[in-house]
């Protein structure tokens, strides 16, 4: 328990740094008052709005006010939606969480069998094919893969919807698009780790006891290869979020990604700030969950 309290305490300075970075980017992006007022607004109206928003105060004071508002969950009002920014982002959060979870599941379903098979069939044509496919999967841009999947499975074969969210059929193509790069990376990592594990003494002992091949490989070999895979997934959550931003635009998926892209184009900085904080908390939470999973996979691990 003390370990996790320490980890949670470490989140506070991280969020402070994020808040400062967000504040700086918002300030260098331009004057939000100019966007909120009509083009023919007078200087008096601009100055009055700046005073009402506290933009006439010194920068350090503005940051202090911004930080206090963030602690209270207030990121300002969206001038597009005419309401507080955080509820708008939280309304889109389930869609993004659904897509990210599906992408992780897809990547695990693809990568674990391929990674294990590639290690078992080392230097065979099967291994070379899987390794080559992993490199290709990592190299393909999300937007290109998404468009190709839409053309092939939505337009040509008409197996899945082109865009939107609703049923499981709507989720399959976006999940594959988002999870492919992670699947490729996990496959390569798992192959490397399995090659080390297969020659360990406990694997030879398990075989000598007469255990069947499947049990030796998956119960003993795979389980002892999963720790770096969990670490890799946690590290790549931020990359997964970045991929989801592109995927949500390609498939018109109504999540945070599509929201933040439209907010950046419109320079709706209140929504951009709220999106960045929610995404940061998602990434931090994923890394905390990864720490918990270490103990589940290997009970010998202790936390100090």
Automatic annotation (TrEMBL):
It is found in: Cell membrane. Residues 93-290 form the ABC transmembrane type-1 domain. It holds the Pfam family BPD_transp_1. Keywords: Cell membrane, Membrane, Transmembrane, Transmembrane helix, Transport. It is a multi-pass membrane protein. It comes from the Bacteria. The chain crosses the membrane at residues 12-30, 99-120, 141-160, 226-251, 271-294. Belongs to the binding-protein-dependent transport system permease family. This is ABC transporter permease. The lineage of its organism: Bacteria, Bacillati, Bacillota, Bacilli, Bacillales.
């Amino acid at each position: 328990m003390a370990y996790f309290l320490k980890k949670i305490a470490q989140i506070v300075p991280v969020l402070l740094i994020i808040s400062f970075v967000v504040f700086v980017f918002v300030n260098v992006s331009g004057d939000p008052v100019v966007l909120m007022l009509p083009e023919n607004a007078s200087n008096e109206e601009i100055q009055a709005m700046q005073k009402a928003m506290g933009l006439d105060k010194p920068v350090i004071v503005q940051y202090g006010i911004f930080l206090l508002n963030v602690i209270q969950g207030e990121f300002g009002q969206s001038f597009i939606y005419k309401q507080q920014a955080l509820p708008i982002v939280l309304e889109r959060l389930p869609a993004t969480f659904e897509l990210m979870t599906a992408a992780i599941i897809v990547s695990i379903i693809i990568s674990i069998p391929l990674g294990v098979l590639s290690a078992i069939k080392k230097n065979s044509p099967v291994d070379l094919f899987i390794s080559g496919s992993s490199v290709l999967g990592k190299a393909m841009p999300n937007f290109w893969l998404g468009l190709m999947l839409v053309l092939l499975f939505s337009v040509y074969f008409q197996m899945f919807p082109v865009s939107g969210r609703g049923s499981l059929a709507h989720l399959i193509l976006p999940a594959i698009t988002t999870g492919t790069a992670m699947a490729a990376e996990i496959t390569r990592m798992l192959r490397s780790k399995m090659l080390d594990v297969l020659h360990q003494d406990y694997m030879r002992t398990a075989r000598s006891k007469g255990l069947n091949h499947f049990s030796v490989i998956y119960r003993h070999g795979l389980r002892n290869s999963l720790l770096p895979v969990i670490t890799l997934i946690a590290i790549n959550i931020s990359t997964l979020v970045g991929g989801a931003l592109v995927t949500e635009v390609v498939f018109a998926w109504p999540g945070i990604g599509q929201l933040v892209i439209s907010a950046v184009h419109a320079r709706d900085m209140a929504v951009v700030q709220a999106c960045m904080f929610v995404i940061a908390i998602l990434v931090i939470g994923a890394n905390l969950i990864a720490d918990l999973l270490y103990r589940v996979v290997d009970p010998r691990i202790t936390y100090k």
